[in-house]
TrEMBL record:
The lineage of its organism: Bacteria, Pseudomonadati, Pseudomonadota, Gammaproteobacteria, Oceanospirillales. Residues 25-46, 119-153 are annotated as: Disordered. The keyword DNA-binding does not apply. Residues 241-268 form a coiled coil. This is Exonuclease SbcC. It comes from the Bacteria. InterPro entries: P-loop_NTPase. Keywords: Coiled coil. It comes from Vreelandella olivaria. SUPFAM superfamilies: P-loop containing nucleoside triphosphate hydrolases (SSF52540). Residues 29-38 have a biased composition (Low complexity).
C-alpha cells in the first residue's frame, strides 16, 4: 500500500495547502456575515414596528381631538386662550378656597385648644368648691360638738386661732378659685366668640366655594369639553404650551408676510387685464397630472435603482466570498475528488486501499493456483478502468501463460474456477493472519466443488490441502466424490435411508 502511494496524481501536486487557521478564519467570516444579516433583519423589524406604532399614535390622537382636528389654527388659538383664562380663574378660586380653608382649620385648632384648657381647669374649680363646702361642713360640726363648759380656754383660743387661720386660707383659696372660675368663664366666652367667628368665616368660605363650583360648572358647560376629565386631558404642560405659542407666533408672522405680499401683488396687478383662469387652470391641472406621473415614474425608477445597487453590492460580496471559497476549494476539493474517485482512473480511496489489500491476497493465492494449474494460471487485478464505473479497481483477471494474455475469470471452466476460488480462500486466510497479528485460522471447511475437477487437478488440490494439514491446520472437506473420500484418512460418512440418516466415523481422529 505504501509503495502504491509514492506517485500521487498531478492534481494533488498542483493543489495549495490550506492551514487549519485559514479554515477557521473562513468559518468565522461566514458566521459574522450570518450574524450581520440577522442584525439587519432585527433592525428592519424594529423600524417596521416603530412605523406601525407612529401610525397608530397619530390615528389615536386624531380620534381624541375629534372635531378639533379639522378646525383652523385661529379657532384653536382662541379656544386655547379661553381655556387658559378659565384655568386661571379656577386656579384663583382654588387658591382663595385653600386660604379660607386654612384659616378655618387654624380657628378650629385654636378653639379646640381653648376648649381643652377650659375642660382642664374646670375639675380644679369644682374640686375647690367641694373643698370649701367640706370645710364649712366640718366647721359646723365642730361648732356643734364643742362642749359648753370647755375646761381649757387657752386651748380653745389656740384651736379657734388655728380654725380662723384655716378659714382664712380656705377663703383665700375660695377667692382664688372664684377668680380662676371667672377667668375661665371669660376665656370660654372669648373662645365661643372666636368659634362663632370662625364658623361664620367657614360658612362664607363654603358659600364662596359653592359659588366657584357653580361658576366652574357653567364655564365647563360653555366650553367645548364634555366633562372635567376631558378638560384635564386637554391641559398642556409648559413645554407644550410654549411650543404652541411659538407655532402661533410663527403662523402670525407668516400670515403677516403673506398679507404684505398679497397687498403688493394687488398693487402690481392694478389696471391689468385678468387672464383666462379657466384655460390656465386646465393647463395647470394637466401639468400637475404630468408632474405627478413623472414623479411616480421617477420614484419607481429610483426605488428600482436602489434595489439594483443593493443587488450589485450583494453580488460583489458574494463574488468575493465565492473567490475565497474557490481558493480554499483548490486543495480540499481536489482531495475530495481524488478520494471519491472522480479523477485519473476514477478509483475511490476506499477501493484503492481495498485494491492494495487484494494485491496481497492475490500474491498468496497465485502461488497456490500456479501449483494446482501446473504453472498455467495466475490471478491478477485489472488495472484498466471500467467504462464510466466509479466502483472499478477490484475486478479480477487470470493470466494464462499458454496464451501470454490476461482474460476475465469468467472464462474459466468449472474446475478452474474452483481452483481459483480455493486459492483465493487460502490466500485470504494467510493475509488475515499476517495483518491481524495473533489470529490463527486453524480450521478450514471446503463445501463441494471437487466434482468439477479432473483427476489431475483433483490430485493437485488434494496435495495442496495435505500440505496445509501438515502445517498444523485442520481441513474439512464436504464432498460426494468417491475418489476424494478414498483419499481422506479420517472421514465422517452420512447415509440416508427410509428410517433416517446414520453417521459413521472412518479412520482415527487426529
Amino acid at each position: 500500500m505504501c509503495g502504491s502511494l509514492e506517485h500521487p496524481s498531478p492534481a494533488v501536486n498542483r493543489a495549495e495547502l490550506v492551514t487549519q487557521a485559514q479554515v477557521e478564519e473562513a468559518r468565522s467570516a461566514q458566521e459574522q456575515a450570518r450574524q450581520a444579516q440577522q442584525r439587519a433583519e432585527r433592525h428592519h423589524h424594529q423600524l417596521t414596528q416603530q412605523i406601525n406604532y407612529n401610525t397608530e399614535q397619530a390615528h389615536r390622537l386624531t380620534q381624541q381631538l375629534g372635531e378639533w382636528a379639522s378646525q383652523p389654527l385661529l379657532e384653536l388659538q382662541n379656544a386655547c386662550e379661553g381655556l387658559r383664562r378659565q384655568v386661571q380663574r379656577r386656579e384663583s378660586v382654588e387658591r382663595e378656597i385653600s386660604q379660607q380653608t386654612a384659616a378655618r382649620d387654624a380657628l378650629r385648632r385654636e378653639w379646640g385648644a381653648l376648649d381643652k384648657q377650659l375642660k382642664t381647669q374646670r375639675p380644679a374649680v369644682e374640686k375647690a368648691k367641694e373643698e370649701a363646702l367640706r370645710l364649712e361642713s366640718q366647721r359646723d360640726q365642730l361648732s356643734q360638738s364643742l362642749p359648753e363648759d370647755a375646761r381649757d380656754p387657752e386651748a380653745m383660743r389656740r384651736t379657734l386661732t388655728e380654725l380662723e387661720h384655716q378659714i382664712t386660707q380656705l377663703e383665700k383659696a375660695w377667692e382664688s378659685a372664684q377668680q380662676a372660675l371667672s377667668a375661665s368663664q371669660a376665656q370660654l366666652a372669648r373662645v365661643e366668640e372666636q368659634r362663632r367667628g370662625a364658623n361664620e368665616r367657614v360658612e362664607r368660605s363654603e358659600q364662596s366655594l359653592q359659588q366657584a363650583q357653580v361658576e366652574w360648572q357653567a364655564a365647563l358647560q360653555a366650553s367645548p369639553f364634555g366633562d372635567e376629565a376631558a378638560f384635564q386631558a386637554a391641559q398642556l404642560d409648559d413645554t407644550q404650551r410654549h411650543e404652541l405659542t411659538q407655532r402661533i407666533e410663527a403662523y402670525q408672522r407668516r400670515l403677516a408676510e403673506l398679507e404684505g405680499a398679497l397687498a403688493n401683488y394687488h398693487t402690481q396687478l392694478a389696471g391689468k387685464t385678468l387672464p383666462n383662469m379657466a384655460a390656465l387652470t386646465s393647463l395647470t391641472e394637466a401639468a400637475q397630472v404630468e408632474e405627478n406621473d413623472q414623479l411616480e415614474a421617477w420614484r419607481g425608477l429610483d426605488g428600482r435603482l436602489s434595489t439594483l445597487r443593493g443587488i450589485r453590492q450583494k453580488l460583489a460580496t458574494a463574488h468575493t466570498a465565492q473567490a475565497e471559497l474557490e481558493a480554499q476549494y483548490q486543495l480540499w476539493g481536489t482531495l475530495s475528488e481524488v478520494a471519491n474517485g472522480r479523477t485519473g482512473h476514477r478509483i475511490s480511496l476506499q477501493r484503492f486501499v481495498l485494491g492494495v489489500l487484494l494485491d496481497d491476497v492475490l500474491i498468496q493465492a497465485s502461488e497456490r493456483l500456479v501449483r494446482m494449474s501446473r504453472g498455467r494460471y495466475q490471478l491478477v487485478r485489472r488495472e484498466d478502468p471500467s467504462k464510466g464505473n466509479k466502483a472499478s479497481g477490484l475486478e479480477l483477471d487470470v493470466a494464462d501463460t499458454y496464451t501470454g494474455k490476461n482474460r476475465s475469470v469468467a472464462t474459466l471452466s468449472g474446475g478452474e474456477s474452483f481452483m481459483a476460488a480455493l486459492s483465493l480462500a487460502l490466500g485470504l486466510s494467510d493475509v488475515v493472519q499476517a495483518y491481524a497479528g495473533g489470529i490463527q485460522l486453524d480450521t478450514l471447511f471446503i463445501d463441494e466443488g471437487f466434482g468439477s475437477l479432473d483427476q489431475d487437478a483433483l490430485d493437485q488440490a488434494i496435495a495442496m490441502l495435505s500440505e496445509l494439514q501438515m502445517g498444523g491446520r485442520m481441513i474439512g472437506v464436504i464432498s460426494h466424490v468417491s475418489e476424494l473420500k478414498e483419499q481422506m484418512p479420517v472421514r465422517i460418512e452420512v447415509r440416508a435411508s427410509r428410517h433416517g440418516s446414520s453417521v459413521e466415523v472412518k479412520g482415527a481422529l487426529l
